[in-house]
Amino acid sequence: METIIPLEGREALATRAFPFDTAGSMPPKSPVPATVLHPPAPSPDRVVSTEETWRIFRIMAEFVEGFETLSQVGPAVTFFGSARTRPSDPWYRRTVRLASRLAKDGFAIITGGGPGIMEAANLGARRAGGVSIGLNINLPFEQKPNPHIGTLLSFHYFFCRKVMFVKYASAFVIMPGGFGTLDEFTEALTLIQTKKIERFPVVLMGKDYWKGFDRWLRTQARGRRFIDKADLDLYHLTDDIDEAADVITSFWRPHPGCAARTKTAGRQAARRPSQ
């Protein structure tokens, strides 16, 4: 970062550039170049470049904190859905029940840390004595973390937060939601389809809500051969809480070591005091 020296300090700096002689007296001052006393203002390109360079360290810090915190979590299910869902909404209550069921099965519950569906999932995990994690995002209108989070991480950058959602998830549960929910859903399908990540269950909850999008994928995207028939099997659409939980637990049960991991996580959750 370029250092701007205050005007009153520039004379002193220029003076220090000329040392005392052996008698302790100063030699006559030589004319100081104008560029020393009055350096040119940094160009806009230089300022932008400096800001971009320092931004790297903030990005690194968010990744390091996320990796260090979440790497010890064990199997986890990430929930997505609208932040505008009220507690009186049936999908809020269903989210609480599904999160509780999965927490009892030994899965940590990860959300975006805000209100609505995120709050409901964290509440369900907390009621079941499970691990409740919130990955909050700092927004101009200040999304406040919900009160049911046991482990909270805050992010400035959306892309750092999105990495954490995927990297430490054993499954995604997609509840009714808007642009952000749709973004997370389609990104997971893209990463699985392109084999950038190993496949895991993606459960789409709400047949009536998602039926239009599901039909569009089948008639338009698949109909025009923009996706393969097998790509439609990358997600499971249901209304049933037990069915959703079974899709996730049955997927992981045959995998070596998964049953032991979920049992260990469940015992740890049972010993953890309620938040």
Question: How would you characterize the largest beta sheet?
Answer: 7 strands, parallel
Question: Which regions have little confidence, pLDDT < 50, spanning 5+ residues?
Answer: 1-27, 259-275
| Helix segment tally | 10
Helical residue percent band: 40-55%
Q: What is the average of the pLDDT values?
A: 83
Strand % is: 5-15%
* CATH-scheme architecture: 3-Layer(aba) Sandwich
CATH topology: Rossmann fold
Order of helices and strands: HHHEHEHEEHEHEHEHH
Given helix and strand content, the structural type is alpha/beta
Strand order of the largest sheet: 4-3-2-1-5-6-7
* CATH class label: Alpha Beta
Q: Rough shape?
A: globular
- Computed Rg: 27 Å
**Tally of discrete structural domains:** 1
CA-to-CA gap between the ends? 44 Å
Number of strands: 7
